[in-house]
Design brief:
With about 180 residues, the chain is mainly alpha-helical. It is about 50% helix and about 10% strand. It has three domains: about 40 residues; about 55 residues; about 55 residues, no CATH class. Keywords: Glycosyltransferase, Golgi apparatus, Signal-anchor, Transferase, Transmembrane.
């Protein structure tokens, strides 16, 4: 059902008929095709799929760009609280109790995260709809600079998730410079 499929144009119109909020000019895509299958063949597919509501799986880049720092601060506070609780428990239980505490700490973290709305969580994927950096034919409502700056911030934000475990982070999300993390 993809745009390059032999019947891509036909599916484009079929999908638009079944999904009235979807612009007719949009090419076919896997997400729309999946929704179409769920509508048309609900009995066949519904029991085999799980719609995930607990994670922020895919966020639209325009909505995410200005919130990375606030999201990271929320997580930093949650993680600091969790680390403080772990240290207090370790002092009480001793190093031997650490292995026993980890599952409880993981459950506590999930409870803390459950207090956040989906949009307050880290997005698993930043979806750069409209930028099309490979083709260069981006949506005219975004400038080339907006898309490029957004991509740099998103990539540096993702880098920081890994770098943080090593004690580093970017000086600022729009810069390539890496420094020792404040919490290191």
């Amino acid at each position: 059902m993809g745009p390059k499929a032999p019947m891509g144009d036909a599916f484009q119109h079929i999908l638009s008929d079944y999904l009235p909020d979807r612009p007719r000019a949009n090419p076919t895509d896997d997400q729309a095709a999946l929704v179409y299958l769920l509508i048309r063949e609900r009995q066949l597919w519904a029991g085999k799929l799980r719609v995930e509501l607990d994670f922020f799986l895919s966020g639209y880049w325009v909505e995410l760009m200005d919130g990375y720092e606030a999201t990271e601060e929320r997580y930093r506070k949650l993680e600091q609280k969790q680390e403080d609780e772990l240290m207090a428990l370790l002092e009480k239980e001793g190093a031997v109790g650490k292995e026993k505490l980890l599952p409880a700490m993981a459950e506590a973290r999930e409870q803390q995260l459950s207090g956040l709305t989906v949009q307050e969580r880290r997005a698993f994927i930043t979806h750069f709809t409209g930028c099309q950096p490979c083709s260069g034919h981006h949506n005219s409502i975004y400038s080339k600079e907006q898309c490029q700056n957004g991509l740099v911030r998103a990539l540096n934000y993702a880098d920081d998730q890994v770098l943080r475990t090593l004690g580093y982070q970017h000086h600022a999300l729009h810069l390539p410079d890496v420094r020792l993390s404040a919490s290191a």
